[in-house]
Specification:
GO terms for molecular function: disulfide oxidoreductase activity. By secondary structure, this protein is of the alpha/beta class. It is built from 5 helices and 7 strands, in the order αβββαβαβαββα.
Amino acid sequence: MLLPAALFATLAAAFYWGLMNSDDRLPSALTGKAVPEFDLPPIEGRADGLSTADLQGEVSIVNVWASWCVPCRVEMPLLVELAARDTVPIHGINYKDAPDAALRFLDETGDPYTRIGADRSGRASLDWGGYGLPETFVIDARGGVAYKHVGPFDRRSLEEEILPVVRRLQTENRT
């Protein structure tokens, strides 16, 4: 009778330890590699789409989002604030969205994006290794993926994870 209780307690302790000591960042198969080849048209009503060539020559951020994505709405104020600081160009990939819904979303939340590519089929996002929205990538000046953040970021993850990578890459790019 004590053996089952002891086994249960041991398993419960192991699961608890695993939950409390795990790294919740999801790795990206693209980290350290070039961004995939893509060429997305603009959202209807916008001037500039987004392609692989646009991610060359300077450090940038690419954010994958959709108007129907509630967590995307949560992180948008921080993206707008970051864009206002003019620290790094922010580009968007709009995932499987109707153009009018995407434009309405940007009107409501603010538009932090320098360029936005409309990924109506979702193919480009899959090529980027996407498996949840929003996703944010830091791209180095050579067009390589340096960092990936899955899910909405908060001020802490922006200031302690994303921006340090941006600053390091910008410093490396100047030397």
